[in-house]
Amino acid sequence: TNGFEELCLLDSGFEEFERVLFSDTSLTFERSIQTKEVNDSLNLTIRRFLIRLSPYFLLSPAHKALEWLVHRFFIHFYNVDDLIRCVLPYHEHNYFTRAIQMFRLNEKNNNWGWLESAQ
Hints:
This protein is an all-alpha fold. The chain has one domain (3-118). Helices cover 54% and strands 0% of the residues. It contains seven helices and no strands. Helix 1 crosses helix 4 and helix 3 (36-53) packs parallel to helix 6. The longest helix is centred in the middle third of the chain and has 18 residues, at 36-53.
């Protein structure tokens, strides 16, 4: 099974995210060519998913789901604030360090530049 399916077994509340984030139709979704409205809706869905995911962050299925979202929707680029909020409660864990290594924290106008030393 994939990480998303495993998460659904742990918490059926994840099922609401299947159609937008984890279905076969997401394979052909190109975020960079979507309208602002489509991307705003996607961002809201990703935010809600990451809020639900946070309590499960230390589990392997969560890592698999995050890896999918990084590769498919570039959440490490477009959803930095939401992704860091998802993993921040685990700042003392090695997984936190691994997660923030995906970000460009040294860029100007970045709210999280103070985390750069943790990379």
